[in-house]
Amino acid sequence: NCYYKLGLSATPTREDGETPKIIGAIGQIIEVVTPRDLIERGKIVKPKLEILQAPPPQFEGRTWAAAYKWGIVLNQGRNELITKKALELERMGLQTYIHVTNIQHGEIIATSLDCSFIHGKTPRKIRTSEIEKFAKGETRTLVSDLMGEGVVLPGMDAIILASRIVTGK
Questions:
Q1: Number of Cα atoms under 13 Å in the Cβ half of residue 155
Q2: Rounded distance between C-alpha atoms, residue 151 and residue 27, angstroms
Q3: Is the pLDDT reported for residue 169 higher than 60?
Q4: Strand arrangement of the beta sheet that strand 158-161 belongs to
């Protein structure tokens, strides 16, 4: 019985036919704001994307898990590219969040950068402390599997999606 309702959604108009459910829950859509609109209004910055060309892995096995292990986690050339890019961003004075989806991968990258790695098994107190240090600028680089590519951390200038492969031209 509230007088006003405010609903925010990343997908107000849906391709799966579920738009009427959103309208039923919060009312008619008044405005759809795109990322381009927000860039033009000065609310967010236009992202700069860079795709690094990693060397092909020395592959062993025939499963997806094996491909991920050798193509992402243990691909030394690829991990060296990630480390090099993170150090370059650090030298530029930027704070960088590196996202991984595999604990071993996070440990490899964090060790090569001599920075913190937090994951689901890291005690909550330590996770909170490391995120706070990053937010305050006390640490320049943070590696984690906890937050995804849409994460917004105070102080974050750049994100490296170390768990992704981009294919095609």
A1: 18
A2: 28
A3: no
A4: 116-118, 141-144, 96-99, 158-161
- In eight-state DSSP terms, residue 83 is H
DSSP 11: -
Give the pLDDT mean for 96-123: 95
Which pLDDT score is estimated for 75? 92
Exposure string (b/e) for 58-86, b if CB count within 10 Å is 16 or more?
eeeeeeeeeebbbbbbbbeebbebbbebb
Rg (CA), the chain: 20
């913190």: which residue's tokens? 116
Contact 105, 72 (CB under 8 A): yes
Q: How many CB atoms lie within 10 A of CB 162?
A: 25
Which amino acid, one-letter code, is at 13? T
Q: How high is the pLDDT of residue 96? A: 93
For position 116, what pLDDT does the model report?
93
User: What would the two tokens of residue 43 be?
Assistant: 């609310």
In this prediction the pTM is 0.76
Main-chain phi, psi angles of 90, to 5 degrees: -65, -45
Cα–Cα distance, 24 to 13 (Å, whole number): 13
pLDDT tier for residue 144 given thresholds of 50, 70 and 90:
very high
d(CA 155, CA 153): 6
